Amino acid sequence: MSFTVYLSGEIHTDWRDEIKHGAAAAGLDVLFTSAVTAHEASDAAGDCLGAESNAFWRDHKSSKVNAIRTKTLIQQADLVVVRFGDKYKQWNAAFDAGYCAALGKPYVTLHDDDIVHPLKEVDAAAMAWATTTEQVVEILKYVVQ
């Protein structure tokens, strides 16, 4: 079975590559999609619409342009993996998880156990909570094979 997985969340570690490599090593027919992970490019996504002197409006325009990609790819995905790292608060990842819940789109959260409490509602709506990328790959093996 062919499967599309959207990888959402934290952009400061190589967790996406670990999942992609694990799926490839297992011979899984999985297409991975993601938001733009280059922080500067994401922040500048709306700059083509004109310069802003107020940072709020620059962020507002860029978030809307980014949402075109994010919403489309989440809607097209069979599964979403939402990664919460420990270095920064990933509000966008929480929003993506909420969007998945609203759509009835299955998602798996990926985070350490030290942030279980603040993510309790996000985890409660998830199909699974994983603490390692290897666990995510095992879920994909089960679902796809």
UniProtKB/TrEMBL annotation:
The lineage of its organism: Bacteria, Pseudomonadati, Pseudomonadota, Gammaproteobacteria, Pseudomonadales. NCBIfam families: YtoQ_fam. It comes from Stutzerimonas xanthomarina. InterPro entries: YtoQ_family_protein (IPR019884). This is YtoQ family protein.
